[in-house]
Amino acid sequence: MSTAPADHAREAEASRLHDVRNSLSVLRLIVEGLRDGVVDARVDMRIVDQMLPHVQLVSDLLDEEVRSDETRCGAPSGRPVQIGPLLEQWSDAMRAKADQRSVDLRVVIAPALPLVVCRRGQVARALLSLLDNAIRHSPAGEAVVMRAVAQRGGVQVQVDDCGPGLPEERHDAPIDALWPARPGGRGLSIARTIVEAHGGALWATALPRGSSVRFYLPTTARAGA
């Protein structure tokens, strides 16, 4: 059964609001830290680097809302992107939220990764959703690890957490519309839509402790990206 255009528009708007709320929650944490003296921006200017990606993302999403009619008519094509710096940027951007929950946020990037063709802002949204989900489901004192490794024709990105894990029937399965409902389900849905638009799939794999969500970005453009 096909989905009506109005349903697509409502889902796109709900996804944008979800991502705006995620970024604003991190910005609020940082601003409250500045107010309470936990962070001194005069000493630690890295706080600006943590805030800037969220400000840019919210700005882009609001622009997308204004251009919704244009967006429905077709998405711009992807551009070559270095995925390593993008992962590092969003690891820093989510540091405040990880620190609030006493979660250790790490990034492991393989050397000499190829450029991938993608919409940088959309991939940033996918990373935000996956990191937010992993941080919220990991107990205090545990780690969330974001990795990027080269694969034939592209790069695989994965976010590993130490959360409650996966149902047995989902130990190595694509995240699809039938994925069991759980807190953070909208974030996974947003990431899945973005990855599929780039010609890939979002997979969940069980770990000895926790789970790993993985997706692939090609070095060449795919239809819909």
Walkthrough of the structure:
The chain has 225 residues and is of the alpha+beta class. It has 7 helices and 8 strands; from the N terminus they run H-H-H-E-H-H-E-E-H-E-E-E-H-E-E. It has a 6-stranded mixed beta sheet. Helix 2 crosses helix 4 (83-93).
Low-confidence stretches: 69-76, 177-181
CATH third-level topology: Heat Shock Protein 90
Tell me the β content: 15-25%
Level-2 CATH architecture: 2-Layer Sandwich
What topology, given as strand order, has the largest sheet? Answer: 2-4-5-8-7-6
How far is the N terminus from the C terminus? 24 Å
CATH first level: Alpha Beta
Please state the CA-atom Rg, rounded to the nearest Å.
17 Å
Secondary-structure-derived class: alpha+beta
What is the residue-averaged pLDDT? Answer: 77
- Total beta-strand segments: 8
Order of helices and strands: HHHEHHEEHEEEHEE
Described by the principal axes of the CA atoms, the overall outline is globular
The number of helical segments is 7
Portion in helices: 40-55%
The main sheet comes to: 6 strands, mixed
The CATH superfamily label reads Histidine kinase-like ATPase, C-terminal domain
Count of distinct structural domains: 1
